[in-house]
Protein 1
Amino acid sequence: MTAIAVGAELPAQDFPIVRGDLVRYAGASRDFNPLHWNERFAKSVGLPDVIAHGMFTMASAIRVVTDWVGDPGAVIEYSVRFTRPVVVPDPEGATLHVAGAVRAIRDDGLVEVDLTCTVDGQTVLAKARALVRVPESQRESM
Amino acid sequence: MPIDQSFVGRVYPPTAPYEVGREKIREFADAVNDPNPVYRDPAAARALGYDDVIAPPTFAIVMTLPAGHQVIDDPELGIDYSRVVHGEQRFVHSRPVRAGDVLQVVVTVDGIRAAAGNDLVTTRADVTTVAGEPVLTAFGTLVARGKA
């Protein structure tokens, strides 16, 4: 990779999501809302099918940043707006596509990254943004 | 009826201490399909300068989501949980959460506003060690959908 510059792209990634992922995330996060595992319940509230936890989608998307910077502890801030539910039909699932680009480099060296998070071309997380401390030694080599 | 603005600034009591364990971090990292060794291997974490394995950037939700229920369940605010969806989430870290931390959460009602017939309630969850060291702050915006 070339030196970090505004507009530089981070390697994009695709994250497949299947129903079992949501069950496992429910257990690990202790968020057992039936919207995320019970098709009958999801449909009863007007959704087309079970939807992913927003926090699961958020956790998946930041990997584009943490895999890029290497040290996940370098993520100082991370924020998203949940704009569209990620519908996860069984068995076919869904694929989250996440791309990232450097939005700004602050005077203090912290790097602002914008993430674009889509499923089937539609934005599911808006205003997804991270503030990352990139070690000086890595700045030129990234 | 819109939620009363006067609840902005309301602070709830600190949650019971939450002890962050290596296996819980591993379980969470597995659940988000993230193979990064710094979540599992103390030697990998030490190589990055941490005393023990660290947690993924959104891990604190395991504490802050339940803590936020103090607001949703507060009868004085009168939020109908069946109409609540998660609108926004933001984490601001002083440092990563790491194995061995004993953390507590203090939740504050940070903002209340009405938009397009919905109530938007932003909660602020300050996560500190029980000794008072700041670790992170999580802001969550709940959207209480208006009744049609």
Protein 2
Amino acid sequence: MRWRVNPVAVVAVIAVVAVAGCSQTVGGAARRAQSGVPDPTRSYGYVDDRCGLLVDSSIQQAIGADHIVRPYSGAVCQYVLARGSGMVDVTFAWYETGSLDRERALATQRGATITEKVVERHQAFLARRDTTGAACSATAAAGTGVLSWWVQYRSQHNGDPCKDAEKLLTATLQSDM
Amino acid sequence: MAAAKPIWTYVAAFCAAASLAGCGPSNHPATPSTPAPPPGAGFRSADCNGVTDADITKAAGSSMFTKTVVSDAGCFWQENTVLGTFGQGMGISTWWYRGSDMDTERTLEQRAGRTLTELSIDGNKGFKAFDANACSIYVAKGSDVITWSIQTMNPAMLPDLCTVTGQLAELSQERVN
């Protein structure tokens, strides 16, 4: 009897052996894993023209705005939106080695009203602080660090910007890349 | 089996590549994990990284900017002569990255085609990135980064853009470093 070997299976076996055999080789600097996040190694950094994994049109849609510009992009992204006759300001921050505790302490020290939350299985908080308008940030421990969406209704003092901030945070944490 | 030969060729090539790239000795020696910086090793907390509206007016040589964003990530002063919706992104901004790698921003600025120059302010290392319409300054301390940035369509109405952000970055470092 002649052996019939499936070449695809052979490739698969070799690939498995190669991957398993080499799995001890790890490069890069060690980084403290966050306890309790469902996605401990994920990055939410700026990539493919997206901040927090969201394209500009998704942000515009979530806010219900007529127009959006993104003057600043990087670990922090800044947006200016026009909605009806008003302006909405949005910032996104991804601190890859940041922590939720540091963010909460800072928001508290600056006089924000904090509401603890769990958003998409991530420990999070809302921080309402009105400065140049009604404003609120939604911040979550995620991936290797912490991410935050901040929404302001510019020069306005009513409405609930926390709802919009949480909506953006949820969209980022739900994103499948 | 006419296809057998090419597939075995691929298998052989894969094995060779795997043993060379994957299973060879690692050229990334295991770096000892650096201890987390002690609390307080980053910058001190102040809204707008310690800079006031009066500082902005002084650095810009005129009061052509209005503060429209004060968030925990930072601040934005919008240029008053907003030309259409595109102009909504023009102005001066500062951001505080609480746990971030400055090299990520360096790569983004290089990709945007800006000229980069290394610098040091108040003992902290950083760089500036500029073109005819923008100048950003980045300064790192511990795992924190602070940026000062100006973007304008009217550079002729302003002092040298890097002089403006340079002054603001220095004032800011005096107050939060």
